[in-house]
Specification:
Layout: H1 3-11, E1 16-21, H2 27-35, E2 38-45, H3 53-56, E3 63-67, H4 70-76, E4 81-86, H5 92-102, E5 106-114, H6 120-133, E6 138-141, E7 156-161
Helix pairs in contact: 4-5, 5-6
């Protein structure tokens, strides 16, 4: 389980309502369902990249699939969320747009988090965003110590708590 999800598991009781922005094949969403008390999860992606349902079939009553660009999807989600996990567009502009679109959806005390902080554009967008909102930024590498040499597969999570 990724570090930001460990943080949520250790600090929040369910049932939780959240969103994952950038879902790929649904492996991370499945992991969230298996490890967190999820009431409902919004799964957002601009393109359905691979078969999703085999990974999530047993959770089909607990998620909504929204296949539109992230900023448009944020307008479709009407409720306040316990957490938002961003792992979508890894460019500076894409990350910045995702952060700006989804932060208002996180309820006070909720977790605003994501993946691939190690991408230069993503890191820059997150650092600027956290500074502009005066948020404490937590960053942790998901790669086990024995694989630290593998710079290609570094998976760095970030999270912030909305005041």
């Amino acid at each position: 389980m990724r570090h930001s999800m460990h943080y949520i598991k250790e600090n929040y009781t369910g049932p939780l309502v959240g969103a994952e922005i950038g879902i790929a094949g649904g492996n991370h969403a499945r992991n969230m369902f298996e490890n967190l008390d999820i009431k409902h999860l919004y799964l957002i992606d601009a393109i359905l990249q691979s078969p999703l349902l085999p990974n999530l079939k047993k959770f089909s009553d607990k998620f909504s699939l929204i296949i539109v660009p992230s900023p448009m999807a944020a307008k479709e989600v009407k409720e306040q969320l316990d957490f938002v996990y961003i792992d979508a567009d890894h460019s500076y502009d894409g990350a910045k747009n995702d952060l700006e679109a989804w932060y208002p959806k996180v309820k006070a005390g909720g977790v605003f988090c994501g993946h691939d902080y190690n991408y230069p554009g993503v890191e820059k967008a997150i650092n600027e965003f956290a500074k502009s909102k005066d948020l404490k930024l937590f960053v942790k590498n998901n790669v086990p110590e024995e694989k630290k040499w593998d710079v290609v597969h570094k998976e760095v999570d970030f999270w912030m708590i909305k005041p």
